[in-house]
Amino acid sequence: MTLEKLFEFAMKNPICALATVDRSQARVRMFKLLQADPEGFFFATGTPKKVFSQIKENPLVEACFWSETQMMRVDGEIDVVDEKELKKELFGRHEFLQSLLKTADHPWFVVLRIAHGTIDYTSDAIGLTKIDSFEF
Which of 59, 64, 71, 100 has its CA at 20 to 30 Å from residue 132's CA atom? Predict the structure, then answer.
């Protein structure tokens, strides 16, 4: 398995569970992956949401991508990406963002990225086979 194949797997299975920490309590919610490439794993959220506050307080997260035959966990620090061109590009590619926010310049629209961390991958979605780990 290569990093490129892992990015492809995430893009083919973009709905993932993203875990954050709220004080000492784990919080998990579903996110849609916007992009996965050597620059990282990209997501979007809104500034009024609790998840945004949790990330600002503690940027350590884990995302879990799943298919019926594979599972991949990505952990690392998530950061806010404040690049206008990237925000416009991602906004333009995802209709669900356009329907919610109407413009890439919406003051609530935030792009998040896990730029570095560890990927744990197994070809057996219930984890009975060997888990391969990758740094990115």
Answer: 59
